[in-house]
Amino acid sequence: MSRDASTKRATTLKGVSIRNSNARGEARGLLSSGEVASAIVRCGECQARLFDLVSYREYEVSWQVEKPCRRCNLMNDRVITVSRGYPKGDNGRWICAGERCGGFLAEVDAIRGRLTVKCRCGTTVRVTAEAVIDAVRAHPAQVPFPRPDDFESDLDDVPF
């Protein structure tokens, strides 16, 4: 627990620190093999959730980034590389796909897999997908990712 002097309240740091970044990451779920299935990236200053990285089996060198737009709350996604030198998508500004929105989401460096995001607290966070995955693999989540057969057992108790 660290003590926040400006608000005089205790704050708990969530996740693990990510190398060469002022962000923190935490594993959101594990596959049955023990691999990280998804990760949450948070601001290192205020702990606000910035975006999620989600693994898909068909992608070997890339993950999908999910980020909600601040203007319209539409969940946007795009593929980003986790291996330097294998670019996925375009460089430059990532703009919301919402109709008549055009909200700025992040600055993307496709070759490095780096996102530059401005947090609500004003902090500019620069983080690579590779660094996030490395950090959360070293400290996996405690709760495993739910398997489809877990949901079937919950439905057995429903009287209909």
Summarize the structure.
The chain is 11% helix and 40% strand. The protein is mostly beta strands and 160 residues long. The longest helix has 10 residues, at 129-138.
Structural summary, described in words:
This protein is mainly beta and 160 residues long. The protein has helices at 129-138, 148-155; strands at 2-4, 9-11, 16-17, 23-30, 36-43, 49-54, 62-68, 75-81, 92-95, 104-109, 114-118, 124-128. It has one domain (14-142). The chain contains 2 helices and 12 strands, in the order ββββββββββββαα. The longest helix has 10 residues, at 129-138. It is globular, with a radius of gyration of 17 Å.
Strand order of the largest sheet: 3-4-5-6-7-8
Q: What is the chain-wise order of helices and strands? A: EEEEEEEEEEEEHH
- Total domain modules: 1
| Outline | globular
Q: Average pLDDT value?
A: 77
What is the C-alpha radius of gyration, as a whole number of Å?
A: 17 Å
- Based on helices, strands and strand pairing, what is the structural class? mainly beta
Number of helices: 2
Total count of strands: 12
How much strand?
A: 35-45%
Largest beta-sheet characterization: 6 strands, antiparallel
- The first-to-last residue Cα distance is 47 Å
Poorly predicted spans? 1-11, 142-160
Helix content: 10-25%
Secondary-structure map with pairings?
Blueprint: E1 2-4, E2 9-11, E3 16-17, E4 23-30, E5 36-43, E6 49-54, E7 62-68, E8 75-81, E9 92-95, E10 104-109, E11 114-118, E12 124-128, H1 129-138, H2 148-155
Antiparallel strand pairs: 1-2, 3-4, 4-5, 5-6, 6-7, 7-8, 9-10, 10-11, 11-12
